[in-house]
Amino acid sequence: MKAIAIDEYGSADLLTVRELPDPPVGPDVVLVRMRAAGVNPVDWKVREGYLAGAFPSHFPLVPGWDAAGVVAAVGPAVTGFAVGDEVIGYVRRDHIQYGTYAELVPAPERALADKPVQASWAEAAGLPLAGLTAYQALQLARTGSGDTVLVHGASGGVGHLAVQIARALGADRVLGTAGPDNHDFVRSLGAEPVAYGEGLLDRVRELAPDGVDVALDLFGGDALDVSAELLARPARLVSTADPEHVTRLGGSYVFVKPSTADLSVLAGLVDAGRLTVHVARTFPLDQAADAHRLMETGHVRGKVVLEV
Fold it and tell me: Which of 22, 122, 154, 211 is the most exposed, having the fewest neighbouring CB atoms within 10 Å of its CB?
């Protein structure tokens, strides 16, 4: 099969297409013939070796955790999927080797769900990691009817989905931090934009004098301190970026988990017209290096996707 693979950690220049043996199909594994793969900030961090202490890695290493494609084969213990099914997945294992930047991906059954019918392949590939992160964080914060929710980074991959998911969970208002160029985009998602940076606390208080009920942080640092100041109940602060800091403040750290059930909820929201994945740009597989360079800028509206 063709795949993007690296033999050592390093720069985006290492991301080249090569021929690899087809991956093994274990008893509870679904082999997915890929149509598109989402690109996430964690992918370039894996490539650089920043996660080497958290996950055992094996070379050649194929990056990528987001999958959208068609089932090509199933292991004998698989009961939920059949050859020909269209699926999406957050394909993270306890080790890093068989990623999604490839023609064929061996996915644990627990990592997959049916593809939303109303989504394109690119949109479907952009949903799993970012959507699950937003959904699991907002669920942990018990987001519900009548809440005012603050989402930091509301125009990014996780943030733009979090805004929509918060509304779907019943939030009455969503405030979203973003740069001025993204304010109209944030409004289109159903949130009230707030410029980030110095003075953020005062700007949010002008919009929500009584504070906010839930805060989702994607950056750590000062954003967490501002959120804690605005919350009546620290336990409703969640962060994907700064476990020690958020814990000191009384909130919770979130690291996204594969979940068929949660993915199915998200797919249902897409098909119901309540959740849209904004794809900023697609790249062919052989331009994965350019996709990573774009992600490393930290200024992507929505999602970046590789077409396989």
Answer: 22
Kindly tell me the burial class for residue 205, based on how many C-beta atoms sit within 10 Å of its own C-beta (0-12, 13-18, 19 or more). Answer: middle
Show the tokens assigned to 10: 């390093």
Interatomic CA distance for residues 76 and 79, integer angstroms: 8
The type of residue at 164 is Q
SS3 state at 193: strand
Residue 214: the pLDDT is 98
Q: State how far the alpha carbon of 287 is from the alpha carbons of 12, 16, 101, 290, 294, in Å.
A: 10, 8, 11, 5, 11
DSSP secondary structure letter of residue 52: T
Per-residue confidence (pLDDT) for residue 205, from 0 to 100: 97
Q: Distance (Å, rounded) from C-alpha 35 to C-alpha 115? A: 12
**Using one digit for the tens of pLDDT, what is the confidence trace for 258-288?**
999 999 999 999 999 999 999 999 999 999 9
Distance separating alpha carbons of residues 168 and 257, to the nearest angstrom: 21
Helix, strand, or coil (residue 240): coil
φ, ψ (nearest 5 deg) of residue 77? -95, 0
- Residues 16-45 have pLDDT tens digits of 999 999 999 999 999 999 999 999 999 999
Strand partners for 74: 30
d(CA 255, CA 94): 13
Strands 112-114 vs 86-90: parallel, antiparallel or unpaired:
antiparallel
Whether 128 and 161 have beta carbons less than 8 Å apart is answered as no
CB distance 178 to 157 below 8 Å? no
Domains of the chain by start residue, with CATH: 2-127+277-307 (3.90.180.10), 130-253 (3.40.50.720)
pTM score: 0.97
Per the listing, tokens 């020690």 go with 244
**174-193 mean pLDDT:** 98
